Structure formats: C-alpha cells, structure tokens
Input
Amino acid sequence: MNTTIGVIGLGLMGSAMARRLAECGLPVIGYNRHPRDVEGIETLDNLGETAERAGTLWLMISDFPACREVIDSLGETGIRDHVVINSSTIAPAESAEIARRVEALGGEYLEAPVLGSIPQATTGTLQLLLGGSEALAVRLDDRLRALGTPTHFGAIRSGAGAKLAFNQLIGSLTAAFSMSLGLVQREGVDVEKFMATLRESALYAPTFDKKLDNMLEHSFEQANFPLKHLLKDIRLFTQSAGSQGIDTHLLIGLQHVLEEGVYAGHGNHDYSALFESVVREPGRSDTAH
Output
C-alpha cells in the first residue's frame, strides 16, 4: 500500500499543512503549479510524477476551476486507485462534480475543507470538515488527525457546505464588529471599557479580540487569510445559499465592502482590512477609493 501523501497546492496553507504532515512522520511530497520550495518537503515540478509517487493526493488549491484542471490533467492514469482529499474551499455543487469525476476515473474522494489558518495548521489544531464516505474517513483517520480534529458531517456536499457556512460567519462577524468599533471610536467611547463589557456579554466572539489590534493600528499586512479569499467565499456562499432558497440580501453590502477593499489594494492583506472600507476616513465619499 502506497502511504505517500502528495500535497497539491503549496500556497500559505498548503505549505503549512505539508510541513505538519511531515513533522508527524508521514511520507509527504509536494507539487505547485508554479514551482516553489517548502522547507523539509521534497517538491516536484510535474503533476503526473506526483501522482505516480503518492497514493493520496491532498488538494489545497484556489478554486473549482483549479481543482477541475488538476483532476482532468491527471486523468485515469493519475487518479485510478488513488484517494483524493480536497481541502479547497469550493461550493457544494462544485465538490459533488469533482467527486463524480474522481470516482468515474477509478479514485476515491473525501471533502476535507478546514476551519483555521496557518497557526492552526502549524500546530495541528485545525478542524477538518469532512463530507463523503464515513468508511473512507475512518481509513484516513491518522492522516487527518495529524492536522487536527476531523468531524464527519455526512455525504459529499456536507463538508463543503459547512465550510461556506463558517466562512460566512467570519465575514459577517468581522463586518458587524467593524461597524460597532467604528461608532465607538467616533463617539469617543472608551474602547477598553467597551471591550471589557463586550467580553462579559453573550454578544462576544473571540475573533473580535483577535482582530482588534489590526483595526486600531490599521495594520493588515500580515495575512493568514487574505481578504480576496474571503470575498471569493462570500460569493460562493451567496450562490449556494441562493440556490437553496435562502435570502442572501444581507450579504450584498458585505460583498460590496470586500470588493471595495480589494479595489483599494487590500486583496492580499488580512481580511480584517474590511474595517477600512466600513469605517471610512472623514470626508471620504462612498465612491472614493
């Protein structure tokens, strides 16, 4: 049995996950469309060779077209008798299509998007949101637990759906906190007293404190989860929820705020940079960038 894991997609998260898997003693190789080195990991510049050498292909790539390109490029030769674990954030319907393609080519497929970012990947404290065969999840348990805590949500689509639901909360909570913090500042309310009161209330979410200093210091360059990726996920949530008859009008404003942030040059900055679009500098109009 080939136990080697081929991590496909060596961006910020993919690299951190690959290093963590290797640190746990698992055999790991890596591939990135644009070749890059990852400390402690053998990286290849050929996708087909990655599939030849690995029994499990672990995807952490940008979007559905990129996932589809990988599977189609590998074809039956690269997919048959392989397990494909997909940690990319894509829509439930998109994940179901990838699953169909993988299974038609003779492979097995498990959704495993993650909740958490680079620090959690580094320490093995991610939450893995699984969708697909429970028997397959059990078989892969040692590999999954190297990265954190796996939770099996059900059939294909359920892991992807849970991931979008969580990321919608990331955006909505951060936007709501930005508005409240902005009013607190503009009305001269003591921020420390406001936060102390908030922490003792049922309204508190830990993410508020995690992003507070970024907002107060207008410092967003250190990004574990870039704003442009949150925009992509909010669009995916809107599309997926709308197709299920859920009214997503509340997210129109959030999407506009995120688009404005990308336009203003914050796309690669931390997603908390949405604060800059919500709490505008005095005299700045809605159409100014």
